[in-house]
Amino acid sequence: MFRSRSWFGAAWGRPKNPHSLEHLKYLYNVLSRNQTVSEHNRGLLVETLRSIAEILIWGDQNDSSVFDFFLEKNMLSFFLRIMRQRSGGSSYVCVQLLQTLNILFENIRNETSLYYLLSNNHVNSIIVHKFDFSDEEVMAYYISFLKTLSLKLNPHTIHFFYNEHTNDFPLYTEAIKFFNHPESMVRIAVRTLTLNVYKVEDASMLAFIRDRTAAPYFSNIVWFIGKHIHELDACVRNDADHQSQNRLSDLVAEHLDHLHYLNDILLLKITDLNQVLTDHLLHKLLIPLYIYSLSSIRRQSEVTMETATQNLARVLNKSLSSFEQQESANGKVSSVVSLFLLSQVFLIISHSPLIRYLAWIILRTERSTFDQGLDKLSEHYEIFKRKFELTECEQSSQLEIESNASSSGSKENLLEEPKNVTDEEKEKLASTPTESTNISEKPFLETVYNSLDCTDNDYAALFALCLLYALANNKGVLPDLLELVLKPRMSPSKSVGRDIKYSYNTHLVEKLLHIVILSCQPSCRVRLVTLELALKLLLQLVTCDGQNVMSDLHKTSIEAARTQSTALLRNFYKSEEIFLDMFEHEYCDMSKGPLNVEWLCMDSAILLPPTGTPMTGIDFTKRLPCGEVERARRAIRVFFLVRDAVLTLNGEIETQLPLTNPQSCVQIDTALDLSIARYNSDLIACTVVWKDGQKIRRFLVIDIMQLILVEPDTKKLGWGVAKLVGFLQDIEVSGDKDDSRCLHITIHRPLSSGSTSRIPLLSAKFVFDDNIRCMAAKQRLTKGRIKARQKKMQHIARLLDIPGQTGPPSPAYVGGGSYVSRGISRMSRDNRPLFHTGRVPGFAAPHRENLPGIIHRVDEKRRKSTESPTRPSHPADTSTKIERNRSRESSCNRLRSREGSPRMPRPRSEEIPLELIKKPPNGVGDIISPKITILPRPQTPRDDVEPSTSVAPSKSPPPQLEIAEAKTSEETSFMAEEGNVTQRRKGIVETV
C-alpha cells in the first residue's frame, strides 16, 4: 500500500546490486561527504573501504569500467588524505585501509588493472607514510601489505617502485628497517620481501642495492646473528638441568632461519651481492666466532686428552671455569656450541667459495698460520686456491688417460707440494695425515678429533661426528680437501697387472671403531644416535667404488664389536612376551628410515648435557637409558645397528629380519582355496558381533601365523575371500561368563604397519553354534598364539647364537596362554631361573612328545627303563618330572569332579595332541599338518609308542571334542562332499 521502504532507499541512493558500477559511484559520494575522519563517521568509512575493495576485485574479473571510474576519480587520493589525518579515529580507519589495500593487491589478476593501481606513485606515498607502528595491528597489516607488493615484482612492474632517476626504492629501503623486529612474523616477512626483490633481473636496481644498501644491511644481519649466538651459548651454559628447553628451542630455530635465508640469497647467484655477503660472513662471523672458538680446548689443555675430557665434564656439571668465563668475555662460545653451529652451516649452506674456505681452515690450517692472524690465514688460502686453479687447468689440457693415471700425483702436488716422488714416497705421504704428530699441528682438526673421545660421555663427540659428516657430504667442498681425511683415496699403479691400492684415514677410523666397541659395553654412556652416526661415517670412510677397503685389523675390530653386541643382547634374552614385542617394535622403529643428520641438528635437546630421565621429553635415541627395560631396548638397537653395518661392509643382504615375512602372509581380499588341508582343517563357522551391534557371518581359519576371517566366494565353489587378517601372536582371547558359546577376541595391529600405538585391529564377540565349537576355537587360538611366539623366540635365539634353540620351544611357553589357571602360570614363572643356572632355553624340550595325551602313565616306566645307565640324572630333571606327575594327578582329580559339566574345557594333561597322531614329533610337518582330518586310530602304525594297554581309564571329554571336530568339518559342506565327512565321523566314533 505504502512504498516507504523503497522510497527511503531511493532517497539514500544505495543501489540494490552491491557488485555494480552504480554501487561504486555511491561509495564515491560517501567518501566525498566524509573526507574528515571523526568518532562519528569512522564506522561508515571502514565499511565503505571494505566495499570498495570488494567491488574492485569483482570488476577486475567482470567489468573493466569499474577500474576506469576508480582511476577517473583518483580514489587513491582519498586513501592518502585519510591516512594523513591526525584526528581521533584515524588510526582505526588506517587499519582497515591497509587491510583493504592488502586484499586488493593480493586478489587482482589482470595486469592492466594492476598497472592502473600502481600508477600516479600513490602506492609509494602510502609505503613511506609514517604510520603509528606502536599499534600491533597497524604493524602487522603494513608489513603484510609490503610483502604482497613484493610478490607482484617482475621486470615490468619494478619501475613502479624503483625510480632510477631519483635513485629511490622505498619498498625495499622501508622494509629492511624491520629486519631486527621483535616479532618473528615481521622478520620473516622482511626476508621474504628481500628475496623477492633480489630475484628481479634488473641491473640498475641490483646496482642500487649493492652500492647503497648491501654493505650496511648484511653487516647488520651478521651483527644480529652474532648477538643471537651469544644468547644461545649463555642458555646452554646455564641450563644443565634442562629447565629452559623452550627458550633454547626458539634460539636454535632462529639460527636455522638465518642460515636458510643466507643460503637462499647465495643460491640466487648474484655475483656482486654474493661477494659482499660472503666477505661479511667469513670475516665478521664464521671465522672469528664459529671457528676460532674451536681452539679453546687446545689452548687450555695443551693437547692433553685427559684435560679435554675434564673440560667436557666441567660443562656437564654446569660449572664454568675461569678460562671459559674469559672466552665468553672475549666473544667466544663454548666448543660444543661451536661444533653444533658449524655442523648446521655445512649442512645448509652450499655456496662453494664460502664452504671451501671454511673447510680448508678446519682441515688444513696449521698452528703457525693460525697464530699469525686472520689476514695471514686469507693469504695462505689465496695461494692454495691459485694452485688448485692452475692444477685444474693443466689437467684439463692433458689427455683423459694421462689425467686418470696422474691424478694422484697432481693431488699430491696440491696438498703437500712434492716433486718427483716415487710410489713408496706417495704411500708414505698418504699415511702422514693419520699420524698424531701431524694432527697436532692442525689446531682445529685436532679439536674435532679430541672431541671424539667417549670415555666419560659422548656430549662433544656427537657434534664432532655431525661436523665431520656435514663436511664429507657438502657438495661445495673440494674432493682434494677431503681425501685421506674424510674420503678414501685410490692410488692406481702405472705398471700393468698390479692391484689398485686404497688408503684412508686410519686414525679417524680407529676413533670411530673405539666409539662402536665402547657402545657395546653394558655400562657405557654412549647414546644410540652417536653410535648410529659413527657407523654412518665409518661406512663412508672405508668404502671406495662400492667395495670395502678396510684393513684386516679393522675388520677384526668391527667383527669383535658385532660379537660384543650379540653377547650384550643375549643377557636380556628372556622367555617373557615383552621381549618379543620389544624386539619387533625396535626393529620396526629403526626400519622407518635412516638417520637424517640435518634433522638431528635441528633438535635443540642435543645441545644440553646427556640425561637419562625420560621426564625431559627427549627422544630415547638422544638420551641415556633409564631402567632395565630401556637398557634392553638399547641393547636391541645396538645389535641391529652393528649387525647392519657389518652386513653392509661384507656386501651381504639381510635374510633373517624381520621375523615375519610379509610375502608369505595372507592379505585382505586374497582368494583362498579352502579345500586344501591347510585351511579346511581349522575352519569353524561363527558370527562376529561388533561393538555397534552389527552381526556378520564368517568362517574362522587359524593358519600357522595368522587368524583369518573368510567369506565364501560366490563365484568359485570351495573358495573363500579373506575379509580380516591378524597375527596370532597379537590376539587376546577370553570366554564369556554368561554364554559358553561366545568368545571375546581382540586382535592388535602389527607393529610392522608403521604405527607404534597398539590400537586394536578387531575387538568383537565371536558367537559359535555350540559350546563345543567354542571350546575348540579357544583351544586352537591359544595354542596358535603360543606356537607363533615360540617360533619367533627361537628365531631370535638363533640370531643371538644361543645354543639349544633349533629344536622344540622352551618349557616356559608350555604353561603360557590365557586359558591356563593361575597356579600353572605361577609355576611357569618359577621356571625362569633356568636361564640363570647355566642352562639354555629349551633344556627339557626334547621330551615334549610325551607331555600331552593319555599315554603318560604307561610310558613313564618305559622312559625309566630305557634311560642310559651311564648318564647320571640331573637333580633338576628329577624335580621337573615330579612336578609333571603332580600336575597330571591334580588334573585327573579335577576332571573327575567335573564329569557332570561337559561345557568346561579339559586340562592340558588330558588333551590329545592331534598333530602327533598323523606326523612324528619334532618334525617340520607337525606345525602345518591338519588337525581335524585325521585317520582312525587303528590305522595308525605306532606299535612302540601307543600299545593297546596305553588307553588308560576312559574319559568322556576326548570323544566329545573329536566329535565336535567332525561337526566342524560337516558344517563347511560347500567345500567338500557330505559323504567324506560322514565317513570320517564314523571312523572317529569307532576309534573311541
In short:
Among the domains are: 488-492 and 500-650, no CATH class; 662-800, PH-domain like (Roll), CATH 2.30.29.30. It has 43 helices and 12 strands.
Number of helices: 43
Work out the oligomeric state of the chains in this entry: single chain
Q: What structural category arises from helix and sheet content?
A: alpha+beta
The number of E-state strands comes to 12
Could you tell me the strand content as a percent range? 5-15%
Residue-averaged pLDDT: 75
N- to C-terminal distance = 103 Å
Principal-axes shape call: flat
Question: Could you tell me the radius of gyration in angstroms?
Answer: 40 Å
Family: Belongs to the CLEC16A/gop-1 family.
Biased composition (Basic and acidic residues): 413-429, 846-866, 880-911
Keywords: Autophagy
InterPro entries: CLEC16A/TT9 (IPR039272), CLEC16A/TT9_C (IPR045820), CLEC16A/TT9_N (IPR019155)
